[in-house]
Design brief:
alpha/beta, Alpha/beta knot, Trp Operon Repressor, Chain A, 2 domains, five-stranded parallel sheet, 9 helices, 10 strands, 16% strand, elongated, binds ligand 9D3, transferase, tRNA (guanine-N(1)-)-methyltransferase
Length: 267
């Protein structure tokens, strides 16, 4: 799969590709990432890529000509693949979108910056617009890397382990169960005994229940889309019953996440 990234800050993108697991994927020819500096496609002597907004107001707007020139030079007219604008106004990225993009042979990513981008780019060049979540960043470069990373790891062979991508939490639709490694006791904190039992069926059941418990506590919204067995549903039913009757059986309030005392604290 090929990615083309159009940005005013190409040096922000390069190091992540060279240091992460993506480096190996590039070396093996499983993915190609081509980074294009939009400023290289300006034609004036100051290499002007942005300008003040018509109508006034603060900040700068990315000019259309260098963006059209860059994209049309690299991808042709009309562009040979989808061009995704990274912007706070896009549809919110998720694993379903990652899977959809991973089916394509090529995508191009356009990183916005400053206050925004001339609307004619959006209207006449961009084919899709994606945000990575409801928080404010300084530009689309990190979102472009998020997309490259999350799409690449779905391509067969990019992860060393072929079922790594299948077994992970968002694939099953549940959060992950707790994991432990040696030592079996650290500072007096013991690993759950079941994991040392050698009873693989019991371990599999415990892990599934822990994943269900965690998801129910922290991300109950995920349970709607998760694929659940009858046994899973029975386990969740028991959790609901325990929660529903907890004020009658224990005097303790219902558990919350994060638990009391684990909230993020100001210094
Ligand atoms: C100061 C400008 N803001 C006015 C309300 C809008 C704005 C424009 C551009 C805010 C942030 C940015 C830069 N962010 C992105 O380009 C971006 C982004 C993000 O900020 N959050 C989540 N996903 C994305 S994708 C691209």
């Amino acid at each position: 799969m090929r990615f083309d990234v159009f940005t005013l800050f190409p040096t922000l993108i390069q190091p992540y590709l060279e240091e992460s697991i993506l480096k190996r994927a590039i070396q093996r020819g499983l993915i190609e990432v081509h980074i294009h500096n939009i400023r290289d496609y300006t034609t004036d002597k100051h290499r002007t890529a942005d300008d003040t907004p018509f109508g006034g107001g603060g900040g700068m707007v990315m000019k259309p000509e260098p963006i059209f020139r860059a994209v049309e030079t690299v991808l042709g007219i009309p562009p040979s693949c989808p061009l995704i604008l990274l912007s706070p106004q896009g549809r919110t990225y998720n694993q379903d979108i990652a899977r959809e993009l991973a089916t394509l042979p090529q995508i191009a990513l356009l990183c916005g910056h400053y206050e925004g981008i001339d609307e004619r780019v959006r209207e006449h060049l961009v084919t899709d617009e994606i945000s990575i979540g409801d928080y404010v960043l300084t530009g689309g470069e990190l979102p472009a890397l998020v997309i490259i990373d999350s799409v690449s790891r779905l391509i067969p062979g990019v992860l060393g382990d072929p079922d790594g991508a299948i077994d992970d939490s968002f694939a099953s639709g549940l959060l992950e169960y707790p994991q432990y490694t040696r030592p079996a006791e650290f500072r007096g904190w013991r690993v759950p005994e079941i994991l040392l039992s050698g009873n693989h069926a019991a371990i599999a059941r415990w892990r599934r229940e822990q994943a269900l418990l965690r998801t129910w506590q922290r991300r109950p919204d995920l349970l709607q889309k998760a694929s659940l067995s009858d046994a899973d549903r029975q386990f969740l039913e028991r959790l609901e019953q325990q929660a529903g009757s907890s004020s009658l059986t224990s005097d303790q309030p219902d558990s919350t996440y994060p638990p009391p005392g684990k909230e993020i604290q100001n210094p």
